[in-house]
Specification:
Elements lengths: L10 E6 L2 H9 L8 E4 L7 E4 L1 H4 L9 H7 L4 E3 L3 H18 L3 E5 L2 E5 L4 H4 L2 H16 L3 E6 L2 H11 L4 E3 L5 H5 L12 H9 L5 H5 L3 H19 L15 E12 L2 H21 L2 E12 L12 E12 L2 H9 L10 E13 L23 H17 L41
Helix pairs in contact: 4-6, 12-13
């Protein structure tokens, strides 16, 4: 499987080390060498980032703040500043673009760079990677780890192996030797549930999966099994995509206390719907589907997945970018969420289409009570444009509807949210979370 055609590319994955925590330690000398967590310190707080000093106590991203305190009573919580991290991220990505025009941002602190053909101009891949690391530190005084490989998955795994503050290069003829001994959950896209299933079938390492025949994988796992089997063999045809399109847009928050009051939930839905709709309009997109997400307040098992997530969705008659329509559609899905108190509530949209390529004709009729609303009338669209202009100039929170709630996040989102905007500079360009 390791043909020269498959391995003609050279991909670099750059990943900042404990990005949020590193920024705080750089800017606050008293935090250096101390266990630092960026995130909420309350009972509903979540670790957005942990310094390497905190990680020695077993503290990691997405862990509850309560658990972090148990593991290290001396841990220092910092609320974080997403605007500051976004500004640092823009400086970092400016450095990345000096090394390649093809940069695919995965989050504020990590990206793929396509270095294919760069050797003639910049030298061997390892030298390019080391120079990139040097330039990032020179520009920002922050550490970055780099992985280099012939495919995206290998480069990403290699950057993890390089942490902290290192570089690992995997040559084309060393891909299988690098991948085979690794745990099966290192495969890109294999999470806890899929990992348990694969281990239950006897696939504990990537090599175990790579040695299985396509027929075996199809019988056991269907098309998905064949796909991850190819990844296990080091076959990944995905290109570095500098202008990766968003497939969905969402906003969510965790409440300080569990909520069952319909008025509070509906006000929160409106807040999220307006934010989602504003991001749609800024990107020139319309959404065909509205999704309501919630987590119940009752813990059913230990661990980060102890509070089950529920989702419901509805397809609209016409795609929309109007917050009122998104909110009404989401509220029509709320009944199930009222069965018991919820700790988290979110609104999302999917089925995104380009506004310019969509025929925006008003539907003559909408299904009463269905939530499948027509597109907003012209007067409503003019109001939305006026509100967008105010938000662009003064920030997204400058104007709110009277019925909106105060939906505060329990911790940092960690995402580059396409279509979001702050008052500190241009918006980021991609959409993902810090790992």
């Amino acid at each position: 499987m390791e043909s020269s055609r498959e391995y003609a590319r050279c991909v670099l994955h750059a990943d900042m080390d404990a990005f949020y925590a590193s920024v705080e330690q750089r800017d606050r000398p008293e935090l250096r060498g101390r266990p630092v967590v960026v995130g909420g310190s309350g009972t509903r707080g979540v670790v957005a980032a942990a310094s390497y000093e905190a990680r020695t106590f077993g503290i990691f991203s997405a862990m509850s703040s309560v658990e972090a305190k148990k593991r290290c009573p001396d841990v220092i919580f910092v609320p974080g500043d997403m605007a500051r991290y976004a500004r640092e991220s823009r400086r970092i990505f400016d450095v990345f673009r000096e090394f390649s025009p093809l940069v695919e941002g995965l989050s504020l602190d990590e990206a793929f760079l396509d270095l294919t053909g760069s050797e003639r101009l910049l030298g061997p891949p390892r030298e390019i990677g080391e120079e990139l690391r040097r330039q990032v530190r020179l520009e920002t005084s922050l550490p970055v780890s780099v992985g280099i490989g012939p495919i995206k998955m290998v480069a990403k795994i290699a950057s993890g192996a390089a942490k902290p503050d290192g570089l690992v290069e995997v040559p084309a003829d060393g891909v299988r030797a690098f991948l085979d001994p690794l745990p099966i959950r290192k495969i890109w896209g294999v999470g806890p549930v899929a990992g348990e299933k694969l281990e239950g079938l006897g696939y504990y390492t990537i090599g175990d999966l790579a040695r299985a025949t396509p027929g075996e994988l199809r019988r056991e796992l269907g098309d998905w099994g064949e796909g991850i089997g190819r990844l296990a063999q080091g076959v990944d045809l995905r290109e570095v995509e500098p202008h990766r399109e968003a497939v969905s847009i969402s906003e969510e928050n965790t409440f300080p206390r569990d909520v069952q009051d319909r008025a509070v939930l509906e006000a929160t839905i409106l807040t999220h719907a307006e934010s989602v709709a504003r991001r749609l309009r800024r990107q020139g997109l319309l959404a065909k589907t509205v999704v309501l997400k919630w987590r119940i307040g009752r813990r059913v098992k230990e661990g980060p997945r102890g509070y089950p997530a529920r989702t419901r969705q509805i397809t609209l008659i016409e795609p929309t970018d109007d917050g009122d329509i998104v909110a009404r559609s989401a509220r029509s899905l709320l009944t199930d969420a009222l069965a018991e108190p919820v700790r988290l509530l979110g609104v999302g949209v999917s089925g995104l289409v380009d506004e310019k390529g969509n025929s925006r004709q008003l539907a003559l009729f909408a299904e009463e009570g269905s939530g499948k609303a027509a597109v907003a009338p012209p007067r409503r669209r003019r109001l939305n444009r006026a509100l967008d202009q105010l938000a662009d100039r003064f920030g997204d929170d400058v104007v709110k509807r009277a019925s909106q709630g105060d939906a505060r996040h329990a911790t940092l989102s960690g995402q580059w949210k396409k279509g979001s905007r702050d008052t500190h500079g241009p918006e980021p360009e991609s959409d993902s979370a810090e790992e």
